[in-house]
Amino acid sequence: MESTKSATPGDAAIDGLIHGLIAGALMLVYLVVIGWIQARPVTVVLGLFSPETGANPFYGAVAHLAVSSIYGAGFAMAFRKLRGNWWALAAGLGYGLLLIAIANFLLIPGYATALAAIEPLQMSIAHIVYGLVMGAMTKRGAGE
């Protein structure tokens, strides 16, 4: 029996907010682990996401998760009718690559953000993790 989850745009938006929050949290876990390997404290890594200049790690984490949720809603609404394991993962991978392109070419250089301190390779891998998790959760939510 096929799930009716995400059958309407509203359902997709709610699912996407939740999936984006989870994918964003896993993205942060990846970046925190990489930071730990590089002897960068958790508070410093989370502070890089802070919209204020004081690099508050709490605000950084909350801001990142809020943005991740919003991007997740966008993904879920765009791909709410997507069916099939490989298509969902491919769409998620493409979405992660699109987000890193936007971040690298528009947001980070345009706003002189502290996120520039994260190595481009690590930031790219983190966005790929985000996208793949979004694809996997969208596939799962579709009842596949």
> Average pLDDT, to the nearest integer?
86
Order of helices and strands: HHHHH
Based on secondary structure, the structural category is mainly alpha
Weakly predicted, low-confidence segments:
none
Helix content: over 70%
Dominant shape: globular
Rounded to the nearest angstrom, the distance between the terminal CA atoms is: 10 Å
Whole-angstrom Rg: 15 Å
- How many distinct helices? 5
Strand content: under 5%
Number of strands: 0
Largest sheet: none
Q: Which terms summarize this structure?
A:
single chain, mainly alpha, 5 helices, 144 residues
What is the topological layout?
Elements: H1 9-37, H2 42-47, H3 57-78, H4 85-111, H5 120-141
Could you characterize the architecture of this molecule?
The chain is built from five helices and no strands. The protein is mainly α. The chain is globular.
Give a quick rundown of the structure.
By secondary structure, the protein is mostly helical. The protein has helices at 9-37, 42-47, 57-78, 85-111, 120-141.
